[in-house]
Amino acid sequence: xxxxxxxxxxxxxxxxxxxxxxxxxxxxxxxxxxxxxxxxxxxxxxxxxxxxxxxxxxxxxxxxxxxxxxxxxxxxxxxxxxxxxxxxxxxxxxxxxxxxxxxxxxxxxxxxxxxxxxxxxxxxxxxxxxxxxxxxxxxxxxxxxxxxxxxxxxxxxxxxxxxxxxxxxxxxxxxxxxxxxxxxxxxxxxxxxxxxxxxxxxxxxxxxxxxxxxxxxxxxxxxxxxxxxxxxxxxxxxxxxxxxxxxxxxxxxxxxxxxxxxxxxxxxxxxx
Length: 272
Ligand SMILES: C[S@@+](CC[C@H](N)C(=O)[O-])C[C@H]1O[C@@H](n2cnc3c(N)ncnc32)[C@H](O)[C@@H]1O
Fold this sequence. Notes:
The protein is of the alpha/beta class. 36% of the residues lie in helices and 19% in strands. It contains eleven helices and eleven strands. The two termini are 38 Å apart.
């Protein structure tokens, strides 16, 4: 199992708090990346082109790559916000976004928040549920930095304001809290070596940290009991469906397939 340590050299108060909340050891000096082996470090760092008044980022450092962190203000997510496919992109169509229709979404596998940010960019309110406390800490840091940024673009402020975060197992959360939500979205980590080999840096680190998600059937069950309109499952294009339940529709892009389960149709067929 990967050992995680929190480092306090840049943000001692936040580091002490995080190490207590997560029950992780605290060190004061970051070890050189080469000496990390299978260990990972949660540490704050100054990033490229950072304005002096902006807070440092929380990153997950490993021997394999530079820090993995989440950023809702700049970088890839912001680029996709400006130049992505808008409401016509497969992900948006799968969720049922069209015209003025922007359903409420519970992203049951929030991960790095990429898909959740797309939903929020297109106008949806999104509850992000992430069970890994480490990944949830990275998401919380990204939300806090965005909401505390002094010169944030008002559009981005509005988008980030539509996102909220819950650190919990989504199946338990759905069954215990029974939130009112139109769409439940799932993108579990797929146990496929080919996908792992071609995965991006962030996903490789997540795969090392978390391993594949082996309980997606339980999550799909809970999602089907909760969503008011549909459940959407993101899968690699050729992967089997979860649990062998036939989706009512699917939307394909070159490497990805979105399986769409319509609650109305499944109820009508007596399947749920
Ligand atoms: C492939 S990643 C999701 C990536 C995400 N869609 C994105 O755009 O960044 C899967 C994530 O779902 C989380 N996860 C898997 N099953 C979960 C569950 N039952 N409850 C909460 N989180 C879960 C994992 O911890 C992991 O962070």
